[in-house]
């Protein structure tokens, strides 16, 4: 056998051993890959089931919260509407009252010459009363000054009389 043939035989033996090893490894590798695939598929299905369950629970809780919020709104809305209606009615009554007073004021301003004369006469009487009051005050002030002067005179007369009486007493034996 020559070297070339020996080399060829060695290559064939190595190829056959590799093919046998590849076949053995390939079948074990394929089974491992299939098992990993099945495990991954199972885990994904379980995760999806858990996600669906969690989503349903969250959606149910959300729906309950929305229902409670709407119920609370409806419950609090009724008194608020009644209060608002009462306040609006009160404001409208006040506005009608103010409009009535405005009409009365307009009627008074349009009352004519007689009403203006009456108001002018009243103002003149008030002014005259004020002037008369000032006159009375000045008269009272002058009376007080006169009384003060009279008292001063009386005090001077009394002092003079005392002085005279005391002098007479000294001159008399």
| Main sheet record | none
Helix content: over 70%
Topology, number of strands: 0
Order of helices and strands: HH
Please indicate the percent range of residues in DSSP E strands (runs of 2 or more): under 5%
SS summary, helix count:
2
Give the CA-CA distance, first to last residue. 203 Å
Shape: elongated
Low-confidence stretches: none
Rounded to an integer, what's the Rg over CA atoms? Answer: 63 Å
**Mean of all residue-level pLDDT scores:** 76
Helix/strand/pairing category:
mainly alpha
Task: Note down, in words, how this protein is organized.
The chain has 173 residues and is an all-alpha fold. It has helices at residues 3-109, 113-171. The radius of gyration is 63 Å and the shape is elongated.
How would you briefly describe this protein structure?
This protein has 173 residues and is mainly alpha-helical. Helices cover 96% and strands 0% of the residues. The protein is built from two helices and no strands.
Name the features.
2 helices, mainly alpha, 0% strand, 173 residues
Q: Can you lay out the helices and strands and say which pair or pack?
A:
Layout: H1 3-109, H2 113-171
């Amino acid at each position: 056998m020559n070297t070339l043939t020996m080399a060829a035989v060695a290559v064939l033996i190595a190829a056959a051993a590799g093919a046998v090893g590849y076949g053995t490894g390939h079948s074990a590798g394929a089974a491992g890959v299939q098992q990993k695939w099945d495990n991954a598929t199972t885990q994904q299905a379980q995760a999806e089931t858990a996600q669906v369950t969690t989503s349903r629970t969250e959606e149910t809780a959300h729906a309950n919260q929305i229902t409670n919020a709407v119920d609370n709104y409806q419950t609090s809305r009724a008194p608020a509407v009644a209060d608002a209606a009462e306040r609006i009615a009160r404001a409208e009554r006040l506005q009608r009252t103010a409009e009535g007073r405005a009409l009365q004021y307009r009627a008074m301003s349009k009352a004519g010459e007689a009403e203006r004369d009456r108001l002018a006469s009243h103002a003149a009487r008030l002014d005259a009363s004020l002037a008369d009051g000032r006159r009375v005050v000045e008269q009272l002030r002058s009376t007080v000054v006169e009384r003060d002067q009279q008292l001063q005179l009386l005090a001077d007369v009394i002092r003079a009389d005392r002085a005279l009486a005391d002098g007479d007493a000294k001159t008399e034996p």
